[in-house]
Amino acid sequence: MLVSLAFGLLGLATQAFTLATIEAKGSKFFLSTGEQFYIKGAAYQLTDSDPLADTQQCQLDAALMKTLGANSIRVYHVDPTADHDGCMSAFSDAGIYAWIDLDTFSTYIIATQPAWTQSQYSAYQKVMDAFHNYDNVAGFFVGNEVLTTGANSIAAPYVKAAARDMKAYRDNKGYRTIPVGYSAADIAQLRPNLQNYLACGTNSSEALDFFSLNAYEWCGSSSYDVSGYVFLQQNASDYNIPIFFSETGCNTPDPRLFQDQSAIFGNEMSGTWSGAIIYEWIEETNNYGLISYGPSAAATATGTGVVAGYTRTGTPTPISPDFENLSSQWATLSPSGVSMAAYSPSNTPPACPSYTSGVWEISGNVALPTIGQAVSVHSSTATATGSSSRASGSSSGALVAQSTGSSSGTATSAGSSSAASSAGAASSASSTASSGSIGIRNPVGNFISQFTQHWYGKLVEGLLLVAIL
């Protein structure tokens, strides 16, 4: 009797973690029950530390997220040594999946001096080890906005190598096939090449499982055509792996209307795109929050849960009307999709982009770096060398493969971790510097950057389309 009761209680405890798992098939996500999955999510990083280690806070937030209509969160930084059972159970009970970045402030790939080291690989492994057993882990990111310029394209093989190795690690460990992908900055001149490069090639073990975009193009009362979403759709219409918005939600002008959701989940895009994650859950200096935990304080204020002038714990209170606007949008948007059984993927991998000086400095489907290799960028004409060369031909910015010398080398071998606000974050219209929180976004500066970059990018894309036609 006692044995039966014990097994019964164990079953109940396990049930709290049980949701249908998510997998990638072709260009779509599916639940293990067979239905297509569309992401309705919120970026969730309350402080620089792990937000999935405070069970009580997660329970409070998960309950309100459920009323919002969310089914996903994105978490940028976690501590693999922490206990995540309580939080993952709370979100599971609310029907919410987690998309988790594998990198940290000290382990991300630096675009200007890229490397893929043993210490990075080991750190990514620890995060995957800590989270793979939760059914509501939907996917892992190997990087966030690593590349933000054409010159940064030298880092693309390192992003792809990280995904290759983490997929192999996942499979060798016998873990569930949790999708592994990348979150890109929305840079019009860079995006098409990067998007295609991360999915190209005949070896599927080297391609990413998904590609996602941090895009803030649709601002205020715009439209599918005016916002530029029409170009995002055209560039992705034949994409062979899932694609979604890993951040979106332009906040200028205020309030946010979230009208882009009707396009993402509507007829224009739902056949290609797998949903969106709204930036962000908590209100802070950047004014992107959907909720607050209390009034703001002085930037230097201290106290329980107060960081950088904002309370970051407690009962979440919706910020009106943004919270209600998003909830109202999502409540009316439920694309039916296709069943996994009825879906036969037909899209093939895109061609690997060719070398274009200053725009894309990788030549085709080059060999990916192995662990322990870095590049040096020479000012004189040179050709890539080494057992894992990444470029062919010659150019004034050619790549040369170099070993970092020690398998225990760290990401800082390619640069200071304080450069870490990432190589590229400052120049990205959707810059998060991989941290996802703590006042990263500047609404006024972002609006100017978004506006100029957006319309210049639209001009470039429009001219390309005209040329193609």
Tell me about this structure:
- By secondary structure, the protein is α/β, with parallel strands linked by helices.
- The chain has one domain (17-353, 424-468): Glycosidases (TIM Barrel).
- It is 27% helix and 16% strand.
- The protein is built from 11 helices and 17 strands.
- The chain has helices at residues 2-15, 55-68, 85-93, 118-131, 156-172, 191-197, 224-227, 229-236, 260-264, 322-331, 443-468, and strands at 22-25, 28-31, 39-43, 72-75, 97-101, 115-116, 137-144, 180-185, 210-214, 243-248, 273-278, 291-292, 306-307, 310-311, 317-318, 373-377, 399-403.
- The strands form 5 sheets. The protein has an 8-stranded parallel beta barrel, surrounded by 4 helices.
- α6 (191-197) links the parallel β8 (180-185) and β9.
- α2 runs parallel beside α3 (85-93) and α4 crosses α5.
- The protein is globular.
- The termini are far apart.
